[in-house]
Amino acid sequence: MTKACEVCGGSSSLRVFDAKGLGEGSPAFGLRRCPDCGFGRTEPEVPDADIGKWYPPEYYGKDNIRFNLPFEMLIRLLRRRRAWTMARQVPPGPALDVGCGRGFILHFLRKRGFEPHGVELTENGAWHARHFLNIDMRVGNFLDVPYPDGSFQAVVFWHSLEHMRRPLDALRRASGILRPGGLVVVAVPNSDSLQARLFGASWFHLDIPRHYVHFGARSLRAALESAGFRVVKTDHFCLEQNPYGWMQSLYNALGFKFNLLYSMLKNRTARTIPIREHPVQVALCLALVPVVLPLSLALTVAEAALRRGGTMEMYAIKEGGR
Fold first, then answer.
1. Which of 164, 190, 193, 257 has the least C-beta neighbours within 10 A?
2. Domains defined for the chain, CATH in brackets
3. What is the pTM of this model?
């Protein structure tokens, strides 16, 4: 029997495709989507006791550093700009980043007068933010970490909501701990995007099975509104995520080792593919960059204009505030 869609209540769902690039012996994961609102779930869901194996040490990298130096510098620059965008939406106050990673958004929000707090699932994930940036960190499931109602001026889910088994509960929890008029910021891959529809199982941002759920613009807006939020800004242009989504998805579709370019951009401690074992493919990847990169940048601009970006950001205010 098919469960009703938890976002819109629709009574049907469709198995869209099976996932790729998971390695031999992996379960046959796939994506099941509601045809009415576009909300999707990975099936079968990985039990809580087993999800840890999909987050090996290489997922984080040594000292939580994933990428080579030029890309690390670019990430910091883009996180600074992101904090500036958030700060324009709401006055300074306590801010919570759920799944904050290394804590760069919180670090730059602190420079703009916010009081930073973070949540991570593991001690390893919290290490950099706690020890390098001196951010107040809690470790555990966001739904179980005790915060009093009305504690925060802003709550951020920056590419973390899709990693949660119960995302609607997480949004309702965020509403509870926000002050009236407080801001929630959600960034997720957009399953209604041009990238997602064109590449299907080869789409880089799909990331099954680590992504339990899959939002499009319609379903994310509906989820936020059901949790008591009013969406005030939606952005489909993301220079950090979307051009790369086009590049890697195209390489995947062309038959290269799945997410090979992604491993090439990482430092040694964060690589999941031993790139020295694939010298021909590595050379071909590099040779195609002068063609693929400009094309991906052009497509990023086009998809943003069409409001179908590969990833999207929504900024929403808790109703009840002025």
1. 257
2. 61-236+312-318 (3.40.50.150), 244-302 (no CATH)
3. 0.93
